Amino acid sequence: MFKKYKIFKWILISFASIIISLFVFGWWFMGLLPSSENRIDITSTKVSDLSYLSKNKIPKRGKILAIVTSTNVMGSTEKSTGYELTELSRAYYVFQANGFDVDIASPLGGEPPVVIDDEDMGEFDYAFLNDSIAQYKASHTISVNNINPELYDAVFFAGGKGAMFDFPDNKSIQSIVQNLYENDKVVGAVCHGPAALVNVTLNNGKHLLENKKVSGFTNEEELLLIADAEMIFPFLLQDKLEDSGGIFNEGTMYLENISQERNLVTGQNPWSTWLLAESMIAQLGYKPKFREITGEENAVNVLKIYHAEGSEKAKELINQIYNVDKQPLSRVLIAKHGIIAAMQGKIGRFFSLTGLTSYAKKKSEERF
């Protein structure tokens, strides 16, 4: 049969070769990531285990209000949503470590829906889940209707796609933002959290965002993962921030980026949370308490250097992190950005970032 139909023979051989090649590449690619056997179990982390929180405690300086969404479904779809745990937990502990008590509020009060992405969870996030006080506050949030803004030095809006639905038109949220901003207190928001700012008008009749640099989840970031986002959400956040008079500051996709206009601080995505929270502390007039940088943050810095200066400079930074600074590095995040590049059809960048992941693995193994 194959002698008669040689073309079918070569089609089958080619197809089989492609399948085998993909399997081998996939097996090799997965080998670049830390195996589950070698991972330290951090799920039981407690506040007392984190020196940033348990040592050299700073006396109480005031209170900060964190606001999260009450929305659990994206519009008319059946897609679940809520606030992003990592965006709340990391900011919560930065505020606490720097001497501020934190109250948690939501549009409806009570227990809000939460989104937990196991792949993004770190020590601080698990500590938050194991912190009885933090968990009580997170499951018994105060209704924004019952908030007295005068009690707080700052307000922080955590992200999560639910914020796109119940933050923008909430009059109590608008009043809280206006009150704190016009009294020279700090207003911060990260990822989808800036949705709280899009309809805020000041006493002078001007929009809060008018001619101010602002960051938030970008159109490119939104549409890559949710192609029909324009049909699901009431607006795309980047478009709405610009329509509200903001000067949108768009950083590299899925990497840390914040904008600050005096006492207004906004961040692009979840990876911006650490810097945003510490920038809020600085704006409040205090030097942020020293915190050991996380492996994820180091990976973000490697990726920023990669995009700005190329692979060789990124490799130099990897050497610096491992051999000089003796710090951790999340090569999983570098690998994820390679996958993102593949999703965008940027195959050259995919292989380049895969090579960078392989280099990070090699340097990690050389330490032992």
Protein model, in words:
The longest helix has 26 residues, at 6-31. This protein has 368 residues and is α/β, with parallel strands linked by helices. The mean pLDDT is 92. The chain folds into two domains: 47-283, Class I glutamine amidotransferase (GATase) domain (Rossmann fold), CATH 3.40.50; 293-368, no CATH class. It contains 15 helices and eleven strands. The chain is globular. Residues 82-208 form the DJ-1/PfpI domain. InterPro entries: Class_I_gatase-like, DJ-1/PfpI, Prot/Nucl_acid_deglycase.
Task: Give descriptors for this structure.
368 residues; Rossmann fold; two-stranded parallel ribbon; 11 strands; 45% helix
User: Treating each run of at least 4 consecutive H or I residues as one helix, how many helices?
Assistant: 15
**How does the helix and strand content classify structurally?**
alpha/beta
For the termini, the CA-CA separation is 57 Å
The CATH class assignment of the largest domain is: Alpha Beta
Largest sheet: 7 strands, mixed
Element order: H for helix, E for strand: HHEEHEEHHEEHHEEHHHEEEHHHHH
Integer-rounded radius of gyration: 23 Å
Number of DSSP-assigned strands? 11
Tell me, what's the shape? globular
List the uncertain runs: none
InterPro entries: Class_I_gatase-like, DJ-1/PfpI, Prot/Nucl_acid_deglycase
Domain DJ-1/PfpI: 82-208
Transmembrane segments: 7-30
Family: Belongs to the peptidase C56 family. HSP31-like subfamily.
